[in-house]
Structure formats: C-alpha cells, structure tokens
Amino acid sequence: MPNIYQIIFPALLAFLGTLWIHPKILKIAIAKNLVDNPNARKLQRRPIPNMGGPAVFFGITIGLCCSQTVLNSPNIFILMAAMLIILYIGIMDDILGLTPTLRFIIEILIICWLMYVNDASINCFYNLWGVDVIPGWSSYPLTIFACVGIINAINLIDGVNGLSSGFCFMASIVFAIMFYHMGNLAMMTIALSAAGAIIPFFLHNVFGYNTRMFIGDSGTLVVGTMMSMFVISILDANLSSTSMMLKGVGLIPFTIAVLSIPVFDTVRVMSTRILHKKSPFNPDKTHLHHMFIDLGFSHIGTTISILCLNFMIIAVWFVAYKLGASIETQLYIVLALGVIFTFGFYNFSKRQIEKNGKMLRFLQSIGKFINLEKKGIWSIIQKGIDKL
Questions:
Q1: Is the pTM higher than 0.85?
Q2: What is the pLDDT of residues 259-298, one digit of tens each?
Q3: Using an 8 Å Cβ cutoff, are 280 and 267 in contact?
Q4: Per-residue CA distances from 197 to 125, 169, 176, 192, 345 (Å)
C-alpha cells in the first residue's frame, strides 16, 4: 500500500509541471495568435490566449506518470490516451471551430472506448429504489448519456475567470476524499494529480493579467473527461467493490451533488432554448454566471458565489447522510437544491432585475462586497502572479 508521500508526490509534480509549462505555452499562443477574441456574447474586453488546456494536460500527465511508478495501474495509461485524443479535438475546436454534432460523436466514441478497455460503466445504483446492479444493455447507454453530459456541462460553465478550473479543482478534491474512503488509492492519486495540475492555471487565470490564459475547449474537454472517469469509478460495481463498507452512503446522490451546478444549469439552459424553439447548442448569455454578472458581480465574485452554491449542496448532502437519511431522501434533497440554486435563482434574479426594487439592490450590494478586483491587495497579488 502506498504511503502518504507516494500519494502526495504525484500531485506536487503535477502542480510544478503546469507551473513550469504555463509561460512557455503562453508565449507560443501569443506568437501564433491563438487567442479568444471578444464579441457580443463573451465577457472579456481584450483578446486572451486560449491554450490553457495543454498546460493543464501537461501537468496532469506528469502527475499520472509519477503515480504509475507507484500504483502500476493500467487504467492510468488508458486515461492518458483518452485525454490526449480529447485534447487534440479540443485544440482543433479552439482553432478551427468544430460543429456540435462532430464533437458529440467524438465524445461518444471516447466514452465507448473507455468503457470497453476498462470493462467499466455506470452499472450499480447501490440499492437506490431497491435497485443494485443493472444489466449492460441499460448501463452502457446510461454511461454514455451521463459522461457526455458531464463533459459538456464542464465546457459550458467556462464563461468567467476561474469558474471551470475552480470547480474542477473542488470536485477533484471531493472525489479524492471519497476514493480514499472507498479504498481506491489509484483513483484518489489521479484525482489529487488533477487538482495539483489545475492550481497554477487557476492562479494565472484569476489573478494574472499579462499571464492570463483561458483553459479553452481543449482544457474543459480534458478535465470533463476526468470527471466522467471519476463518476464511472464510483458507480461501477467492479471498480468500487469495497464502497458499500460505507453504510448508508448514497453514491448516486453524492456524484450528483459534486457536479450539481454545472449539470443543472446545463439542463436549464438547454431546455429553455428548446422551449423557445432554438437549437440547444446555440450559444447565448443565459447561463447562471451571466446572471451573476448582470447583478453586478465581478468575475471572481461570480466564481466564488457559484462554487459556494455547489459546495453548499455537497455539505447538505453530507449532513443528510450523517443524520441517517435514506439514499432516496439524500437524492431528493440534492435534486431539490440543484433545481432551486439554478432554475430558481436564475428566474428569481431575472424578475428582480425587471422590478428594479430593494431586493435587486440587496443582491447588487453582495456583489460589490465580494468584488475582490477592487481591493488594494488585488494588484499586489496580480503583480506577483505575473512575475511567475
């Protein structure tokens, strides 16, 4: 069994890998004009390099290669191969712009390949509604639907600085904690490596000015694929055979809680587009992060607020579990909070903007309070990050 240093060391190398490669990729992106230009839908005011994905991928790869020497798990190289393919597709999308249909087909093929080589899928409900292991004919479509949905949900929240990377960092840490309790040290090490690789990018993306890069579709597709693998590893009966030593833990409610805000907001946005007879893939400015911006929140204020909402759902799920709530009750609580914090909050805020009353001014005052970009210490941190 690996000791604590063998588990933490890959995460440290992943951190250092991203930290080292970030400025080099930044220079290449600027020289080759690989930038995301502002337009009516986007929130930035100047062209920003969008090659953050390769930097994060490099850090993750360094961490995974290190962990492979300790864990000797075939799943690591399989995951690396899948991430490399999806990274290439993401870079092509960032540079050329792929059609949503082509992206969906490629994502489905990647998930099918991962299921085949790992012989794994979302095939266990762990006694939710009395259902345990489900047959392959139903688990395979469910896995494809869930994983493609997760990948695109992570991609769609990438609208303000630090949101997608901050969310994936938080999710990786939470998943790592669950893997530890399940006894799955290989996946715990992978999750910690992902978290370590994301940190330097997050710091540059949020605090940097001259060193800021966007993670791009290449990055969101890579980390989205990792989130999908984490979910499969938790909800596959073969990969998580010791998980039911955790009596009363609702693993399906848990995974939904961790991914709640991106998933529920994606469902809300796409269903709204369909109801208005628009393509669900037609980009617009109706995401939850756009609403926070409309309320006067800064980018970092929006990121902090949305991450807090998501963490609150995880915390409430945990309290429900500790209080002995049934798995079904845990699920209903998570679903209710996910709907309230996305559907409910968005529509409530929209009405307050239309009314222009006291509640709107109250929400705006919260946005101003956590507008860290206006604080004096912000420029000090920004200069420090840029020097890195």
A1: yes
A2: 999 999 999 999 999 988 888 877 788 899 999 988 888 8
A3: no
A4: 31, 9, 14, 9, 32
